[in-house]
Input
Amino acid sequence: MRKPVVVITGAGGEIGHGLIEQLAADGSRPIITLDVAPLEASLATHVAREFTGSILDRSLLERIHSEFEVDLVFHLAALLSTRSEFSPVMAHEVNVEGTLNLLEFAQHEAESHGRPVTFLYPSSIAAYGLPSLEAKAQAGRVKEHEWTHPTTMYGCNKLYCEQLGEYYARHYKQLSAEPMSGRVDFRAVRFPGLISAVTVPSGGTSDYAPEMIHAAARGEAYACFVRPDAQIPFMAMPDGVDALLKLAATPSESLTQTTYNLGAFAPTADEVRREVVQAFPSAQLSFEVDTKRQGIVDSWPADVDDTAARRDWGFAPKYDFEHAFRDYLIPTIRNRYQG
Ligand code: SER
Output
């Protein structure tokens, strides 16, 4: 029998970095990656097979299907929210059609092997859309079913793909003679803004926080594109990776929903600035508000209610705001640029 493998799409991205390291350390499954760009050498060493190509290339997915027995998928490939607003049609293709391709891929894998495929999908706070700052202030920590009226292409894509995943898990081909659903064991998390010490994001709207930190560490001036009082939830990348792995390992009987909010801390942009200045006293950080990107941040919740994730599968982030900076971000970033 062939050994089951894990497939990671968008493997060279921000989440992929930490995820590949953790999965390699765990060693339970060979890692197969798919990304439009070749992996960095340090990541490629952990990987059993690297495919360079697009999730829109169905023949490539067919090739992976014919070569491997896949029982776990982390579908990370996506265009982020700011980039998606510049190319909405392409965003829809990659974020929605690409996800549909991966769900079909997982369905076929499960049908071939007679076992469900666990499918992890990073959704986002972008799935929410609050109509005004007043509504945002009043909403506080939003629950999964509240305010799901995204204003961005990326947010629409994420919200729809959550539903598409649930369709595969619960209702796929519901009129066929044989039961077909339940083969894709779809599990989604709505990530807050993720902050990594190892990589700098590109194309996101929550990027102002990581950009402030990385610019200060590099000794470069940075103008934050949102107001000092702008507030959304964030999380340190190691907690994001742990959450994906923990959710993947949870028995399906424990899960009461397919999509879970995740939160850790929810600082204002000015609180982030102050923490960075404390670590890098010579940092040159200012505010130059881009009203359009600000509008997107204003439509996202100030914080999320992640009670369901804590209750169902024991989600418990290690890093609060202070620890994320003092014990993870600042020391790791300092090392990276000055080490
Ligand atoms: N961090 C993402 C973005 O800004 C949201 O999921 O696009």
Remarks:
- The chain has two domains: 5-192+237-261, 195-233+264-302+320-338.
- The chain has a mean pLDDT of 96.
- The radius of gyration is 20 Å.
- The longest helix spans residues 88-113.
